[in-house]
Amino acid sequence: MKWGVIGIGNMGEMLVQAWLESRMVEPQNVVLHNRSIYKAEQIQQIYPSVTVVSDPISAAKQVDILFVCVKPLSIHPLLGDIREHLTEEQCLVSITSPYSVKELEQLVPCQVARIIPSITNRAVTGASLVTFGERIKPIMKSYLEQSIKHYSKPIEIKEDITRVSSDIVSCGPAFFSYIMQRFIEATCEETNITKKEATMMMSEMMIGLGKLIEDGHYSLETLQQKVCVKGGVTGEGIKVLEEEIGNMFHRLLQKTHEKYAEDKREIAEQLEV
Q1: 6 is in an annotated binding site
Q2: Binding residue per annotation — 126?
Q3: Total domains present in the chain
Q4: Is 10 labelled as part of a ligand binding site?
Q5: Among 49, 64, 48, 87, which residue's Cα sits nearest to residue 2?
Q6: The domain that contains 237 carries what CATH number?
Q7: Global confidence as pTM
């Protein structure tokens, strides 16, 4: 099968790199289009067999599976341009949360899926959030699931938990990267440790933490229990976290859901036109 990507932004580029490095698909079976053609050509410089096309219609005509990796409000006009060039045998895949698969199915004649990636997929790990449309054929569904397993763990989700799932899987790396950076800044302000030293220690700690969970040595809860000895230093730190975090994550989720609702309203306005 041939795989295509329209939109080589951060996530589009990351997906192509994950596909090729995991050997999920061979370079000669990848077709790329981006409004700024040089971004697609940068990938082609590394993988010369990748095909780069100058317009989205050419991409739509050449592939079996087409990933749309553009901003939510750019999806409707894009699908208007390529709709008549899509067939029932093809599969259109969106990576953005505000568009439901049901809404996408109303805009195109082909099979539809939504696969929300995570930046962790760049390391051929982490999760991908998957929702299939009603027209998806069993053979295509199975093929997509098995393909995704080359670079991530597919987790099928229902529409009503799309936003919160994306907050964890897709936004989570940025959220926790920010928290770790703030932790590093505090260590430098409160002690004589250098930023370089603290960053190295933090990075190695996070790598080790992920490995402990991946290998099944501990769950998040049991890991905390193992480290947090009663009456010890870690316990004093946990007390501060309990006092200071409060409703922070509740407010975070409220904000992301507000933005999600705004995007959904703007999409609905487009669809009504």
Answers
A1: yes
A2: no
A3: 2
A4: yes
A5: 64
A6: 1.10.3730
A7: 0.92
